[in-house]
Amino acid sequence: MDDAQLHAYVDGALSDAERAAVEAHLAAHPDDAARVSAYRAQNQALHRAFDAVLDEPHSIGIDTGGRASGPRWRWAAALAATFIGGAVLGALLHAGWQDQRAGVAAVAIARQAALAHVAYVPEVRHPVEVAASDEQHLVTWLSKRLDAQVRAPSLLSAGYQLLGGRLLPPAGEAGQAPVALFMYENAQGRRLSLLVRREPSGSDTAFRFARQGATNVFYWVDGPLGYALAGEIGRDELSSVARDVYRQLNP
After folding, report:
1. What is the pTM of this model?
2. Cβ contacts of 132 within 8 Å, gap of 6 or more
3. Are 77 and 147 part of one and the same domain?
4. In contact, 166 and 128? CB cutoff 8 Å
5. 55 plus 118 within the same structural domain
6. Is position 101 within any domain?
7. pLDDT per residue over 68-109, tens digit each?
8. Contact criterion met (CB below 8 Å) for 88 and 46
9. pLDDT tens-digit readout, 227-239
10. Residue 160's closest CA among 226, 238, 214, 236?
């Protein structure tokens, strides 16, 4: 069953007969049922992120190098309210998160990282699927699913310890592999999340910065993989951690 049908099911856009057929399929296919659960979590994250700001000029900021982009944010918020669900992800990419210099692929990483961070960081008991105590298995599993060598950088020098990680669906984007998410926590309970995903284009991009509410994101593409580090910490501190991650991945 394709993503369009699953998104339509989550959005309540199917007839009674179509909905019954999807539910029968989900009962027999736990992987697709897990994807539906993830899509619903993304919907909830979008509601939390945008419902309160529809009447504001904007609450999402991207470092665009001085380009005027104010009117686009109001449109993005309206789209989020109207098309909450899988379809809004693509709309946000083209309306609210577009930065021509960074490239479409890199901007998509920032968007997905912000949503994943908002969805999973608040979890107290189940923030990750595989704990750091089984790090080797975690890295091997995620590498196999992404069909690329994935690493979990150490952030101990910045005061953050690896909690573990999880596998995320590709957010309905055609041709995308699953996505890896590593989560870290410091002694004060503050968390950072590092999203890693394959980029078919394979083109490199420089470090870029995005902001949604209290969540800051530094993101970049390095060869076949894209990375995004997200957290509710200052831009300078997050930049320092992101550059440490880059150095570890490119010794």
Report:
1. 0.59
2. 138, 161, 162, 163, 164
3. no
4. yes
5. no
6. no
7. 344 444 444 444 443 444 444 443 333 333 333 334 555 678
8. yes
9. 999 999 999 999 9
10. 238
